[in-house]
Amino acid sequence: MNWLLRYLSVPDLRRAPGRYALSVVGIAIGVATIVATLGVADSVVHSFERSMATAMGSATLRVGSHGAGVDLEIADELRAQDGVRGAAGIIHRSVVVTGDEDVRLTLIGVDMVGDAAKFSQALRESVSIADEVEFLGAPDSVVVSGSWAADEMLALADTLTVMAVDGPRELVVRGVTRGAALEAAFGGRFLLMDLPAAQLLLGNGSAVDYIDVWLDEDAAVDVVRTRLATVLEGRATILDSGELARRAASLIFAVRVFLMMAGFVAVVVGFFILYNTVSTVLRQRRDSIQLLHALGTSRRSILSWLLVESVLIATLGFAVGVALGRAFASISIEGFIATSGAFLDQPTARLDVQWVTFFIAAVSALSVAALATIIGWKRILPTPEQQVRAAMASADAQGGPNRWVYRSAIGCFAAVAALVVLAPRTLPYYPLVFYLLTTLGIVLFGFGVLSPVIAEWVGRRGFEWAVRRPGFPAVHAFANVGRDPGGLVIAASAIVMAIASTLAVFSLTTSLERTALAWIDQHFTSDAIVTVKGQFLQTFTATSISPDVLAQIRDLDDVRIAQGIRNVEIEYEGEPVLLRAIDMVPAAMELNEVEWSSTEDAFGRGRGVFVSENLAHWRDISVGSTISLDAPAGAREFTVLGTFADYLNSAPGVIVIARDTYTRVWGDSRINRVRVWGRPGAVALGDGMSEVVERYHLEVTPVSVARASFAEFIRGAFSSVYAMVGIALIVSFAGVLNFLLIAVADRIDEISVLRANGVSAYQIMLSTMGEAGIVGAVAAVLGTVAGFAASVIIITVGVPMVTGWFFDFHFPLLPPLQVFVGAMVFAFAAGLIPGVQAVRLSAASRRAG
Amino acid sequence: MTGTAEGIAELRDVHVTYPGRSEQVHALRGLSLTVRRGEFITVMGPSGSGKTTMLNLIAGLERPTSGSVCVNGQNMAKLNDTAASVIRRRDISYVFQFFNLLPRLPVGENVAIPLRADGIGVAEIRRRTRDVLEKVGLADRIDGFPDELSGGERQRVAIARALATNAGLILADEPTGNLDTRRGEEILNIFRDLVEGESRSIVLVTHDHRAAAYGDRMISLRDGQIADEVAGKHRGADVSDFPGAG
Ligand SMILES: Nc1ncnc2c1ncn2[C@@H]1O[C@H](COP(=O)(O)OP(=O)(O)O)[C@@H](O)[C@H]1O
Ligand SMILES: [Mg+2]
User: Fold this and answer.
1) Ligand of minimum distance to the alpha carbon of B17
2) How many domains are contained in chain B?
3) Predicted-complex ipTM score
């Protein structure tokens, strides 16, 4: 095999380095997309986990769940338990530091003289405070990270402005951290404050975000955990750092599924690029390979040589792809954090690609390489027996021998039907991605398998039609398609897949836009929305605003109604959900199955809540049932009064509660946003509002802008997919072009016969273009049908599983038409090049004699 | 079929050189030949002597490096592709040694290639196709495919195609080379009948001196030039002393 590599591969590489380079690029694109997409999402989740773990110090358990918070007094109760060595309240959430450009940093509030300082090694080692007495005495004291201080040129006694609950507040730098532990965990983006000062800054009252618990060295974790759960009685949840990371991942679940899918689309694209190269190379080497075989080299060793060659290509592509993917990930991670920042409180992340990601990418690259080689081998260099069988099949091929094709297509569609019918409500990340890829893959494969059979049918009917009229090109084109459809499988399947995925994406975005935009019209009924600057899209992670600000807005002359809204993460059956507390105002909420007016009273009195349709779908919650929510004074039960759509929140689901009730039960009167209705006739919200906005570093988003920016958000989320689809289209058409070029090279003898019999160059070109056009048309029609099927599955099964959303199904008619016309034009154009080539080759070629 | 009195095809002092790897290959060096109407010329010569090149030149599939090639009085080198194609489909029929038929077209459509290329009506095509296949004894195979035919049958289909066009000039490059003697003779007899019955002209390249004897004129090529030329005696003539035989 060595000598095959030396005497065939190396000279080929010298002769056509571009072709090998293209294969490497094809594999690299797939690997890079996997590494970048999965890498970015994983890095953010892992950074979150790391920062949580570091903030926990050596604590074993953590009470609370990054949401409504827990009362600090609980720490004393926990500390009194057997097996507990210490317990300390922690504030851990992002804050906005205002300046020329607002930045988000993680604020950590710990009791600098309590258990945290005693047990957290990271804290003890890294914090250096100049004057401890002054630091503890002044509530505006802050410790900044060494690296950030260096970047911002901050020195001791300098000030920085932080968004506090009651507006921007100046803090004084009274310490700087050193050492690597905290720096690494937070990427240098953090502030440290004494716990009471941090509570004050955020308007937390007596609440903290978590209570970290350190256990006695000989204590059994499970036993203590059970004991603590009994003490807590539903006032808070107990977690360890692993669970925290899992929950963080679940908050950006939909995004991760989406990215993973994009990664695999890229792999498929890579496959087609590689397959094209492999088949070209194989055809060019057919003579040498047959000679080798005739001279006694076994087929097996020739195949292993080809496999080694493509594995080498794949390995190189993998290496390039990893480098590319990492580079791309490090560029895009900031953007990803900005997007995921609405849900996940992780202001910064270090790129940290997991070995699983490399493993998935490597397996994809290698299997794609092996598959392309083996398929190419089977197609282009069939064994003599296979050739005989194929000849026999074509001899009596009036529909019979294709039975296996119909069988496998029917098998595919039956499998898909079963998968759809048996679809669970949702699945965990990997199984869900697997389910979606399998289902959609089988759909596309089914249509791909059908494509040569249909092409053959069209070719034969077309031939019957063409022979009944004069002229040569049509007869020839249809005969070629009808009698040799096998060669088209890969080319046609590539088009089918590309067109189908294009249409599926179109359908998905159209359905999402139509459904969501209609929802926006119902949802954004106020004139404007007030949030902290730059936080219009933020839900879980929005800065808290004091109720005083709400009162001031309400008092403005131009404001008719101001509805305060509070968004917090709470626990529902051990998983995070978004609890949204809203003021009762004379504006109806749009509900799915009940009228607002009939539930308004029960809702306002705090007897019941509304549940978003995705949460209801995933957790099987029905209207009228009772749900139990963790609250500071113990778990509380609420009746589910109705469900509603919320296209701003996918993964965790939303529970809506009256804000009076929330304030009473959770002891928290802060808000995150205010919906404002102006006085009738008031053009703008006036100077009063401007003043409030200025004072508290807020932002007023008029409803028209809100709608537009939300629509923009939706479209933006799909831009990367459009790019992928674009690449897929280009690749598949390149595949057709390549197929035709190969076909032309294969048909030199035939073209010579045609030329010798007076068929003009122009007629040969027409025939080649016609052949391309027929293949293109068949594939485009099948692709459209496949795209329709895939769209139905994505929108009625996939979307509810991933996001819990139910869209109205829209299959836009214009895009398929455009794609169809585009495919035809491109196919004809693709036929032009081999057509010209055909004439050139035949002029240069000669009959052997 | 409006050739000059001189000949249906005329090559004058034709040179063909190919750019070879190290030095140029001279395929033809000053070849001159006139093919007269109703004349059966057989061409012999060792492999590489330029026989195929000569036929390709006449068919306009290649161009001479210097000299001129005229068919029916028209200089093939000066015609554009469409005009040359028209001559190929109407006035010339080219029969190769091995590969004459398109595997994906049925026999009837293979015969019809030049007719379709010429835009002839479907009814006319059908009539002529059936007629000529009948002549070569393959009428029942009209809807079959080439891979169902034997070598000799395929060759007869190619000849049927030549008959269908009424081409005045038939070029045949070793058409009997891979047939057994009996089949070969069948085909040579068809050719002979065409020359005698329909006064068509034939240029037949062959390695077989018995086949060569079917011609009116036997030409021997060597190194791209005519090395020798003798008058044939038709059918079964003894040409064992002919240069290039054997
Ligand atoms: N396309 C070509 N390029 C280079 N040399 C060629 C080409 N075609 C033919 N030749 C050379 O021209 C010479 C004559 O070839 P050909 O006419 O095929 O001979 P014949 O048919 O008598 O065997 C040979 O030496 C052959 O190698
Ligand atoms: Mg020859």
Assistant:
1) 1
2) 1
3) 0.88
